[in-house]
Each structure stands twice: as structure tokens, then as C-alpha cells.
Amino acid sequence: MPNYIIAHDLGTSGNKATAFNEHGVLVYSHTFSYDAHFFDKKRAEQDPNDWWKAICVCTQAILKVIPAKDIAAITFSGQMQGCLCVDSSGEPLHNSIIYCDQRAEAEMDQLVNELGYSFMYKTTGHRPSSTYSIEKLMWIKKQNPEIYKRTCKMLQAKEFIIHKLTNNFITEANDASGTNAYDLHTHSWSKDILHVGKIDSNILPDIYNSTDIVGHITESAARATGLLSGTPVIAGAGDGGCATIGAGSIKPGITYSYVGSSAWTSTTATEPIDDPSMRTFTWAHPIKGLYQLCGTMQTAGSSYSWFIETFLKKFSTMKESEIYDILDKEVAMAPVGSKGLIFLPYLLGERTPWWDPNAKGCLIGLGLDSGTDQVARAILEGIAMNLNFSYEIFRKQLTISSCCMIGGGARITSLIQILSSVTNLPIQIPKYLEESTSLGAALIGGVGCSLYPSFDIISKMNPITSQVLPTRDHFEQYQGLQRIFEKAYYANKQIFQDLSTLY
User: Which of the residues in the chain have pLDDT under 50?
Assistant: First the structure.
């Protein structure tokens, strides 16, 4: 009986393929890198044929270790918010416009002007933005009408690969909810949004559940990958949705924070949260009937690494890992509140809670006695307090009793303790910190093909290995500091705007 799942994670820099056995144990992985092309300041594209090459190479590598006959199913995690138009044969008509591309600002403005921010937010769970798929498709129709006329379907990264493997055009609810055209309430494409965008609904694929079997490996795909023809293909989910599963956020109120270069805080709910200020956003959860609530920040870990690389690394002969370890110990000894230092971690603008592209990084309160340890601690405290805005929004409508932390930031011990005290929540650390996306994809695939009995197996696949508790008096100090942190943003908001007109 086949007893392995292959999960592909199609990211921006490459594809990571992982194989899990019937016990949910990671047994083998293989990575293949490819390029992204950035140009004209706001444009970002990838060649979808590079994705296909990566899938073939990674699958063949896994099948050198695990026989093809033992593969129960293939599934996916993938980068979201892209736009790839293909013809009726599934051939790309252009390079994929990926999530960080912002060329479609005029199309975003069109949706705002004709439908309004509130309508878009309440319908899709997201603010309108040039980074979403439907705005990009509107741009293609306007700027490249010949491509639009030849378009059979608009696909995301993993959906292009699913067609290459099965000949079927599909999407699933989690990825669909990242297009800015999916109605969270009717679980279908929004007729109003498509009407304003003048987009033919037939161009958008049919929407499935993440755990659905959406096809089987064709004979031609079998020759290219080494898989057996007829092997089931599971829809999978977007990378954020898979990370949510991998972090164990499979039931209402289970919350986690991912801290890498950027960061987000996410929780699971039975219905969308309608935040009046539109600070957070909502995705369809990979588990049918649930919703993934999310608040995100631009520069979390990258703020800390910027400080180390700019002010410490270049003057040291130590390895980078040694610098991080020594600084982590110094931060732990530095006083709570960093002797009055406030750091606004806005090195690339900010999304939650401000949605201000002009926001700048600030270090406020420096004195002659300010040391490296205090500055480093202020940076970590700034990251934690900015993440806490999302917790505060969620807590108005949900009960949150603890939080899981994943990503490379979960290796910074002092950050875990700071976040715990800032939020007044226990912070749980799982076994796998940076493999949650692959874990989530594999679990979705395993449930979809009945290799795993339910999503509850995540507690065995990625068990909690430690827990950090908040310090009560630190929490009380941070409550006061959080309000000053908020005031610091508002006090500098106009200055940020003025600077943006000069540089």
C-alpha cells in the first residue's frame, strides 16, 4: 500500500520537495533554486517553466530514495497573489507576475473608486491592492489585450503545476482568497468585482477544497517526473495557509506568529473578522468552513539583521552565528524598556496596523549611556509590540490563551520572552520552526488521500518542545510602553510623508 506523501513548496527563490511517511515523519527533502526578475522598480516576474523544471528535478530526486509505487499522493504549497495567463493547452502566455509586483496601481484605484474600500474588504477579507491577482489581470487586459484574448485561465504557481501534472484547470479556496476577487461569504468569485474589472468569469478556474483530489498524474507527466501515472494529486493550499496548518492552527483560537525577514500573526476562526479600520485581513482556511485571520509586518527579523550587519558584523571577526548568540545573551540582561528606547521597525513601510508605505524606521530616546545591548533589545521590543497590535485586534472577537512561534525568529531566545511578556501569553515552540509550510502541505495531502485520519495528527508531526511564560511585571511595563510606541508612530506620521516627497 502506498504510504508516502510528496509535498512541493513553490516559493519565490525555489521549490522545496519533501516526503513524509504514514506516521507524519519527514524522511527526505530536496531543493531546486530558480530566479525571480525584478525591474522598473515595481515589477517582479518569474518564468513558469522554471517551476516545472524544479518540480521534475525534485520529484526525480525523491524517487531515487522512495519507489514511485510507494507514493500515495502529490500535493502543494505555493506562492500566492500571482497572475499567470495560459492558453487552452495550459501554455504560459507571459512570465508570471508574482505577488510583490505593484504595477497595477491604476486598476486598484478603479476598484476603490467604483466599489469602495469597505465593500472590497467586507467581500474579500482584504483591502484592494496592486499586489493581488485580479488587479494584475485587469492590467493585462488593459495593457496587453492580445494576451487577454488568448487567455483560457488565470493560474497561481501551484495551479500551473497541477495542470502540467493532470491536464486540469483548478484552484482552491485558500489560494482563491488571495486574488482579491473571492467572496468569503458565498465561497465563489465575486460577480461585482469581476463586473467592475470587466473580467470574464470563465477565465478564473473552478474552486475546490484544499483536500480534494483534483486529478491524477497523466502518462506524459509520469514520463517527466518519474511518478506512476494515476497517482492522485491533491489541491493543497497557498504558502500562508500551509504554514497555518504546519503551526497547528487547525481549530478556532489557535494562534501563531511567524517571524522571519517579515512576520505575521495568524489565528483560526469560524467566521471572518470585520475590523472597522481594515488593519487585518482574512483568508479562507485550508480546512473547509474555517477562516484564517492575519496581521502582517514588513520588516521583523530583517530589522534585527540590518542592525547586526550594519553596526556589528563589519567590525567583527566572529562568525555571524556567534554575534547573534552573544547579542542574545546581552539583550536578556538589558533592562525591560531598554532605558526608554523606542524602535519603530518600519524599514520598508508597514502594513498592519498602519498600512502606511511611507512609514520609516526610527530609534527614539537615545542617550550617551545607550549601549549595543539596549539598542538590540529596543529593536526586538519594537518587533514584539508591532506584532501585538494584531493580537489586540483578534482578542476583541476571539479568546486566545497561548501562541505558537515559528520561523527563524523563534531561534532568538530573548525575542520569545519579550513577545510572551508583551502579549501576556505563553509562547510555545514546536519541533520544526522553518518547515511548517512543507508540514502543512503534506498534512493536507495526507488527509486528502486518507493516509492521515485527520488534521489532529499535526500534534505528532510538529510537537511542542518548549514553552515560555510571560513575566507579570514586565507585561505591566510593556502596557505603558505599547501606548508610547503607538504615539511615536502618530507623532512622526507627517514627517514620514514629508520625507517621502524628498527621497
Answer: none
How many residues in total does the chain contain? 503
Cα 26 from Cα 18, distance rounded (Å): 7
pLDDT in tens, 214-243: 999 999 999 999 999 999 999 999 999 999
Mark whether 222 and 347 lie in a shared domain: no
356 and 493, same domain (yes or no): yes
State CA 326 to chain mean position distance.
Answer: 30
Domain termination site, one of 189, 211, 235: 235
Coil, helix or strand at residue 25? coil
Whichever domain contains 105, its CATH number is: 3.30.420.40
Q: Domain for residue 445, yes or no?
A: no
Cis status of the peptide bond prior to 353, with omega within 30 of 0: yes
The domain containing residue 480 runs over which residues? Answer: 248-436+450-503
Q: Distance between alpha carbon 461 and the CA centroid of its chain, in Å?
A: 20
Between CA 229 and CA 223 the distance in angstroms is 9
Q: Based on the number of CB atoms within 10 Å of its own CB, is 219 exposed (0-12), middle (13-18) or buried (19 or more)?
A: exposed
Whether 297 and 345 have beta carbons less than 8 Å apart is answered as yes
C-alpha cell, 5: 506523501
Count of CB atoms situated within 10 Å of the CB of 475: 16
User: Where in 22-161 does DSSP place strands (E)?
Assistant: 26-33, 37-39, 43-46, 71-78, 84-86, 96-97, 153-155
Q: Are residues 138 and 30 in the same domain?
A: yes
| pLDDT on residue 318 | 87
Report the mean per-residue pLDDT for the chain: 96
User: Which residue is associated with the grid cell 530616546?
Assistant: 365
List, for residues 367-385, the tens digit of each pLDDT value: 999 999 999 999 999 999 9
Write down which residue in 235, 266, 282 finishes a domain.
235
The neighbour count for residue 162, using CB atoms within 10 Å, is 29
How far lies 315's CA from each of 354, 373, 377, in Å?
35, 16, 20
Place of cell 498600512: 355
Are residues 448 and 39 in contact, defined by beta-carbon separation less than 8 angstroms? Answer: no
Strand, helix or coil for residue 342 = strand
Same domain, 308 and 226: no
Residue type, 322: E
Nine-digit cell string for 111: 476598484
413-423 and 372-395 helices, crossing angle to 10°: 40
Angstrom distance (rounded) from CA 211 to CA 217: 17
